[in-house]
Specification:
By secondary structure, this protein is mainly β. Helix content is about 5%, strand content about 55%. It folds into two domains: about 30-130, Immunoglobulin-like (Sandwich); about 255-930, Maltoporin, Chain A (Beta Barrel).
Length: about 950
Amino acid sequence: MGSNWKRRLDATVRTTLGLFAALILLSVPSRAAAQIQTGTITGVVTDEQNAVLPGVSVTLASEALIRPQTAVSNERGVFSFIALPPGIYGVKFELQGFAPIERSDIPVRISVVTTVDQTMKVASVTESVIVTGESPAVDVKSTSKGTNFDSELLKNIPQAREIWSTVEQVPGATMSKFNVGGAESAQQSGMQVHGSAPGQQEYAINGLKLNWPGGNGGATAFYFDYDSFGEVNIMTNGAPAEVGTGGVYMNIVTRSGGNNLSGGASAFWEDDSFQSDNVSDALRAIGITKGNPINYIYDANGNIGGAIRRNRAWFFSSFRRFDINTQVLGITRPDGSPAPDVNHQSNFIGKITAQVNNNNKISGEYNFNYQNRFFRRGSDVTEEKASMRQIEPAYITQFQWTSVLSQRMFFDARYGFLHLIFPLHYQPSVGSNDFPRQDIFRLTLRDAALNDYENLATRHQVNVSTSYFADGFGGSHSFKTGVELGRAFNQNHYEANGDYVLRYFDGAPLEVQTYNTPITSKNFIGTVSLYGQDSWTVSQRLTINSGGRFERLVGYAPVQSRIGNRFFPAEQFTEFNDIPNWKNGLWRVGASYNVTGDGRTALKGFVGRFMVQEGTRLVQQVNPNDLSGDFRSWTDVNGNNIAELAELGPPTRPYGGKVNKIDPGLKQPYSDELSVGIEREIVRNLSTSLTYYRRNNRRLFSGINRAVGPEAYAPIVLTAPDGSSVTAYNQDRATLGRADRLITNIPGLQDTYNGVEVTVSKRMTRNWQLLGGLTIGKDEGLYDRGLNDDFNNPNLNINREPARISLDSTYVGKLVGTYVFPRQVTISTNLRYFTGQPVLKNIPLRGLNQGTVTILAEPRGATRLDDVTLWDVRGSKRFRFGGARELELMVDVFNLLNQSANTAIINNVGSLFGRPTSILPPRVARLGARVTF
């Protein structure tokens, strides 16, 4: 790696570690705060006259703990247990002269502060009081907003059994895919919540971010074993300073085993014999006779956990095989049979947790995933031969050490490593003389994929934090400081038959897109974050949560070279540093007020800033050894349907690292978040909330071509494919081929979300559970096409605003629930509604000096896809055979209403506009069985 880059980053690391140590030494003592990786139990012990009781012995026990924990209430009667793994807990209170009290069935959830205040009675004789099921439904201290999926929700709700279907159940969350029975589980989904910027999601495994480093940094390199989940916390708003991302924060806490040997196996099956036909008469009228049906889906898992040594060390292991075979709308094989989409996923996880002594615990975990997509397709209507072959191994290793340094100080250190090989290769049937043929009007691709690609990605992540607790200084404080260090590598290798793509317009040769292949680009980013946060309990009614965070992100590319091809010569490239080199400080503050003083009503508010996360894409944009090229007109003189050099015009519209530059003053975008709401426990264990959300995404960046300004374009009237007359802008021939692209913050490039949300939640008690929400919102702003946009090009500025941004959905409704009838018969439901997502209505135009351009016919969102209502149900019966042995038989029905909403369409104006390229899979049943012991 480059010495300059390493020296700068190392200096930042040393400075950060020094500041971290200073913050530990200067920490204000405090009481208790929620941990994003774990949960907290805290409370105040009083007598019958409401006087605080110091010296009360408090014992905490749970199957989630290797051994019980004890604490003693302080001079203010306060006790706390932090860093608790999720589970169900019991608390015992003991003090000489008072009757002992035992409380059971207390849930601990990730990122939640569970308040357990207790009144003790004077004992006239030896007696003991046992209280069951009295646990609060409202967190009156935390100001973060999220949804916790405990083991009951994860097991009971009918869904596709993966993380994206889990996020889909969260109130307010919108997804780029709608997963019916697992039909979409082979490909991760984009997501958005309350106006979060695209790509602002964080995949944390046991509290440690291990995202794929490519692109904007918001994707995962891993497909997870659903049955390895112990609990999942989806944080959507009001995240504390220890969370960097201001969108969807997903924390997956894996299972850990226990003192008793336990485990299980599950199997789920669905195929075409279990499904209906959802092709409507309207679809048949345009020639669509089959939708996106499922051929078969098979999901099998086996897991086991137990004690290596009781009360000392535990183990857990799980294996999963997930096969998904579906059909692709409108695509057939040469023999006329439907084209399949064949996918296999395999997972293995092994985990060991050990209590070294009373104060120190360590754990290690290994996750392996094989993600195989044999016919992966992009957005175009792609024939099987032009699809991509993805045989992708990935693994994650993790280590954690937690230590109770004193009764007031807690230490946590975590390390994680991600390794991924992500190939998108040609199909084996593609020969050296098969060239990709792309029709930009019909949106089709045939003969070969656009290129042959392989990505090697790694990420090292270290998180270290210290929490310190005490009372005083105007109340109780909980102070936490932490440092996060990351280093990520992203290597891209491209090859392409002919070093080009043959491009057509409605079947006629149009142009070629050239490549600088073969190439191998190497790109690095380093990240350093330092944070401090305090949860200040001013009184039993008021808690103020505040924090600050410093972040640094540095990009780098080492010396590299490439061989030449017929379009571009061989070249050697020097290293470059500081692309980008961002340093930012930010703050967040929230307040929670216990309105009634009984822990049943909380008024909450939050305001804070989040930096928009980035991956390696900026480094890649200016790396001349990444994929680059240009466009050249093509006249097929000899009619052989192969572009030859003599048939090509001069280069136009160059792209890639050779012509891209980063503005030296480029600033990192940010997202400002505001929320105000009230939460209320209506009846025991059932709470509801009403919250207003506002999010401003600001200082966004995109591209401009400084070599060709707006003055180089003249208006011209052309005929659109639908026959209408359209005004476009013709580029001066003297400027063709000029390119000096600058990625910079664009004035006015921003968006704002406003929305209101009602939620309801009840954990599993008295045989039923419930989770639901209704969100009404709007995310509106200036539309951009990403880093390859050109705000100097008047064609691209047509109808940019007012645009609906990303996955904007006006109405989002969720209702998830379970009821257990007598004889262990269970009915569960999972109902979701989404306003149709915005569509770009494009007008592709020919006849311009610069070649073909595409303009917007209307602002994004004026046309939408169909509204989507998905209703999934489950019926199950459990059979118990003594002890913990149990068999559960399940029948799930997905898309109960048999909706056929379009989820993608041809969006070019003309006779094919609006024709679906994807619809919801039809109603399908799934059979399942689960054995546990």
